[in-house]
Amino acid sequence: MLFSLSAINNYLSLYYNFMENLPLTNQDIFTYMDGDVIPYIQPIIDSTTNALVGAEVLMRIKRNDGTIIPPSDFINKIEQEGKLISATRFIMNKIIHFFKNKAEKLPEGFYFSFNISAAHFHDDELANDCQNFIDAFNGKIGLVIELLECSILEFNHKTITTIKLLTKKGVRFALDDFGSGLSRVIYFHYAPISIVKLDRTLMKSKKIEWNMQMC
């Protein structure tokens, strides 16, 4: 099932309009830095077929004046204060709430991906959050969690056990910004990485581009 870029934008704009006009109660709002934490969706397109295959769900803060605060300005702070896990759970639930009854309109094999840091693996509820997300869509929508290379993940017994559990649940793993500095190849040993996102500085290299075309 192919989607034109205009169709993708039109459909995802429904979500933005939903977020703009959603009547919120105090229980619905996760506030931080004088703004509301919101999910920010970026469509994932198959470059060979121009098909919509998924969407990356990013975290943003929207202030009352409409200003959008990028993650570079708050992610480290929100993690240090121990609120990152709750914020991630919040945006996962927002995606469930909006797309639960629209899953049949998305192409077969569609998935949502969320950025996960080392802090999430210290939380016992990560596996439950992922299971709840998968169950909400009756397994029709896939779940990918992106391991942030800039967030050093310690592959201890708890982390490895969680990775194995998530894999059994059908969760796939992606490595974000590979080559951004740390290039921790050890991730490939302990996690079944199915998606690798190269750092954009590598994509600018003609040599890297040529090698990718040869693969």
Summarize the structure in words.
The structure is a single chain. With 215 residues, this protein is α/β, with parallel strands linked by helices. It has a single domain (5-203), classed as EAL domain (TIM Barrel, Alpha-Beta Barrel), CATH 3.20.20.450. It contains eight helices and eight strands; from the N terminus they run αββββααβαβαβαβαα. Strands 1, 2, 3, 4, 5, 6, 7 and 8 form an eight-stranded mixed β-sheet that branches. α3 (84-99) runs parallel beside α4.
Short description:
One of its GO terms (molecular function) is cyclic-guanylate-specific phosphodiesterase activity. This is EAL domain-containing protein. By secondary structure, the protein is an alpha/beta fold.
How is the secondary structure organized here?
Blueprint: H1 5-21, E1 31-32, E2 35-46, E3 51-63, E4 68-69, H2 75-80, H3 84-99, E5 111-116, H4 126-136, E6 142-148, H5 157-168, E7 172-178, H6 186-190, E8 193-198, H7 200-203, H8 206-214
Parallel strand pairs: 3-5, 5-6, 6-7, 7-8
Antiparallel strand pairs: 1-2, 2-3, 3-4
Pfam families: EAL
Protein name: EAL domain-containing protein
InterPro entries: Cyclic-di-GMP_PDE-like, EAL_dom, EAL_sf
What descriptors fit this protein?
single chain, 215 residues, alpha/beta, TIM Barrel, 8-stranded mixed β-sheet, 8 helices, 8 strands, globular, disordered N terminus, EAL domain-containing protein, cyclic-guanylate-specific phosphodiesterase activity, EAL_sf
Average pLDDT for all residues: 76
Instruction: Look at the structure and give the CATH class.
Output: Alpha Beta
Per the CATH scheme, the topology name is TIM Barrel
Radius of gyration: 18 Å
SSE-based structural type: alpha/beta
Low-confidence stretches: 1-7, 21-29, 206-215
Number of discrete domains: 1
